[in-house]
C-alpha cells in the first residue's frame, strides 16, 4: 500500500518532527508512506470571506497537483465522519482488499480545505469536532494509521 499524507505548510516544530519521524519509521514495515508538504499561501491575519476563499483555492490547487487520478482521497475535515481506530483499520483493510493501493490523506492549512479538494475527496474523515493545529494533525494521523496496521495484523498495540 502506498500512502501519501499531503499537508499545507512546512513543519517547523522539532518535537512534532521527532514524533512524525518515529511513526514514519514504524510504518515502513507495513507500507510506503510519503509526507508531501505544499507551501501555504501567505496572507494577513485579517481576511475577508472572499480573501479566505482565494487562499484556500490557491492551497487547494497545490494539493490537487500532488494527487494522482487513481488515488483514493481521504480529506480530513471537521464535518467528516468520525471513526474509531478499529473502524479506520477496517476501512484501510477494505481499500487494500478492493485494489485501492494508493491512498492520500489530505490535511488543509489553517483556513481548511477548498471546495475543489473536498469535491475530489472520496471520503471525509473527522478526528473530532474540535479544531486542531494542522501540523499536530499530521502526527495524530500517522499514529492512527500505524495503529490501524497493527490492529489489522492482530499485533498488540491498540488497547
UniProtKB/TrEMBL annotation:
Q: Which family does the entry's similarity section mention?
A: Belongs to the RNA methyltransferase RlmH family.
Q: Which SUPFAM superfamilies match?
A: alpha/beta knot (SSF75217)
General function of this protein: Specifically methylates the pseudouridine at position 1915 (m3Psi1915) in 23S rRNA.
- What this protein is called in its record is Ribosomal RNA large subunit methyltransferase H
Q: Which Gene Ontology terms describe the biological processes this protein takes part in?
A: methylation
Group of enzyme by EC: transferase
- What Enzyme Commission number does this protein have? 2.1.1.177
* Annotated localization: Cytoplasm
- Asked if the record carries the keyword S-adenosyl-L-methionine, the reply is yes
Query: Where mainly found?
Result: cytoplasm
Check the record and name the NCBIfam families matching this protein. PRK00103.1-3, tRNA_RlmH_YbeA
Reaction catalysed by this chain?
pseudouridine(1915) in 23S rRNA + S-adenosyl-L-methionine = N(3)-methylpseudouridine(1915) in 23S rRNA + S-adenosyl-L-homocysteine + H(+)
Q: Which domain of life is it from?
A: Bacteria
Subunit note: Homodimer.
- UniProt xrefs under PANTHER family: METHYLTRANSFERASE, RIBOSOMAL RNA LARGE SUBUNIT METHYLTRANSFERASE H
The record lists S-adenosyl-L-methionine as bound by: 76, 108, 127-132
Q: Which Pfam families match?
A: SPOUT_MTase
Single GO molecular function: methyltransferase activity
Assigned keywords, A-Z: Cytoplasm, Methyltransferase, rRNA processing, S-adenosyl-L-methionine, Transferase
